[in-house]
Write a structure and sequence with these properties.
- GO terms for molecular function: carbohydrate binding; peptide-N4-(N-acetyl-beta-glucosaminyl)asparagine amidase activity.
- The structure is a single chain.
- The protein has 20 helices and 36 strands.
- By secondary structure, the protein is an alpha+beta fold.
- The longest helix is centred in the middle third of the chain and has 21 residues, at 463-483.
Amino acid sequence: MLKQFYLCLFFIATNLVSFGQSNEHPVDYVNTLMGTASKPSLSAGNTYPAIALPWGMNFWMPQTGKMGDGWAYTYDADKIRGFKQTHQPSPWINDYGQFVIMPTTGKKVFKEDDRASWFSHKAEVAKPHYYSVYLADHDVTSEITPTERAAVLRFTFPKTDKAHIVIDALDKGSYIKIIPNERKIIGYTTKNSGGVPDNFKNYFVILFDKAFANTSTWNGKELVDNVLEIKDNHTGAVIDFATEKGEKVNAKVASSFISFEQAETNLKEVGRDNFDQVKAKAEKIWNTSLNRLKVEGGSDQQTRTFYSCLYRTMLFPRKFYELDKQGKVVHYSPYNGKVLSGYMFTDNGFWDTFRAVFPFFNLMFPSLNAQIMEGLANTYDESGFLPEWASPGHRDCMVGSNSASIIADAYLKGGKGFDINKLYQALLKNSENEGPLSSVGRLGVKYYNQLGYVPYDVKINENAARTLEYAYDDFCISELAKALKRPQEEIDRFAKRSQNYKNLFDPITKLMRGKNQDGTFQTPFNPFKWGDAFTEGNSWHYTWSVFHDINGLSNLMGGSKGFSKMLDSVFVVPPVFDDSYYGFVIHEIREMQIMNMGNYAHGNQPIQHMIYLYNYAGEPWKTQYWIREVMNKMYQPTPDGYCGDEDNGQTSAWYVFSALGFYPVTPATDQYVLGTPLFKKVTLSLENGKKITINAPENNEQNKYIQSVKFNGASHSKNWLSHKKLTQGATIDFKMSPAPNKQRGVNAVDFPFSYSK
């Protein structure tokens, strides 16, 4: 009896903790190692533990991979080679402006393999604002805490007269200067992976709190004592100390893309603060940002997954601007190499992030997004084109001109403080021109504008994907043109082009299919073939990329019943694939294959909105079922916690929105499509001071289905929510049940927006 009593108390206490989880310190729920158990052949996120402030200019990370390896930190690694300042948005895009600091003891070494040390995750603490690890071979504990453009590193040494700190400015051209009387090292690195002007440099300054006993520099091969300055392909420095047991050596570090003087200015972000003070400030910033979304009533695992995903949505695009001595916003242009006034952001692939990341900013961080929009206008001024994949300048990666979605969504949802007319002119230029790279402007634009599609047989790869995305982008431009009161002919031109998706619909297979220049469909057609006419997916994935006109797509498929059956088929057909376009099984294919959800490929972005489309067919309970399946099976707060590339916050933003209970299927409209909430209660604190409260008190693992919805106390039958009404402050009450309500949301009047409805 007593045992049962204590079990009952434990159960009550556990549920109280679960329902009333203290979100005063949500940063404690973040696992920055989520997604790090990745490799080129299979991604569980392709992430690294970024030690950073939200959208900070500089990140830091422990480096386990070799210099230049995009997989710079992997969970299964045994050794750490150094602590790297990084700007890497993706292992496929790789890094730029990076340099490394590494403490060692014993024999003086400098090469990355020689200085590497064994470590264990059992002696590692990884948080957004703080990282600590014990380097076993050197008996040194290393810690890092960041500001936006600076950081403090703290090394706890053993008793030794052979304590060292190695600074590696990396190869491709670098410079180091030791200034012993100031306990300072300055240098620059030029290492990059493309997308930079010829004068690109990242200037750094490192200030120590302990005098140097001896100093050395090196040029990649040779270590030279008492040479204080060196410039070569690959340079570095080693400074020596004698330390007592437990002695802490601190290094304050900052960098700038502008100059050494600006790096010194950026170091003032640390100022006189010690390590613990910087750490406390960084923790407060993260807690304040994460607490904008307060979740209650989920399991510990769900809460950890939510905040780990939320952290990822707050990293990219990074701030690529700096504040000069007068506090003026300036930036080094990665497009023309000049130092100019105004905002600049980078490290983002819009093909991924237009879907949910930027709509998330427009809901929760609109003033940040306004700065990003100003940065886009500056990019247009400095390069002649809008960025589609920037890191730090234009990179030749992915398809589409999805800057249209990002710009239109920002303005149409009330964004202010940026030059929308200049951005609109940039979109007009995009709509008529190819760019200097295939990812900039619109590759195949003359075919698209003349024929209504990019042909399969004119040697333009991924042509069907381009056509579908251009059509959606044209819808965005037409909506923006209306808001800007542009000429009717202009509005009509883009509205007409938004229907170009119909040109690729094959009525026989009821799927999208490449089409030749003469108007015939390409043959043979294998809907399971990845790539070729599509981008990192097959026809089963890309057919749904008609974000703006799901009703029109449904009509092509024979109406709601036929449309719903095709949606069902994605999960029913086996995970078969044709990889002949690539010649090997790319990781996105393997990730789909092993998830046991048919041909649904959540690990890649084109299909991530598809589950929400049952709302357009009068079967919203199927959306509710599959959302929970994906959230439960494909997201965990663990090193293998994602099901594919995380990609600049997009796969995370899907989870964040889906946990709230709605999702932006069609950016550049006012609507979010309903899903099913995950938590018993969520409170969103908006920038305008209003709050959105989402209540679902019966929510649990079984009660995944929505029985009814009330919006501000009134019954809500729609399968969507209005952005405008949400931002005025709202209370949404969900009544949840273990059985679907097949009477709610079944009438066409309740379906979300479609252009042709």
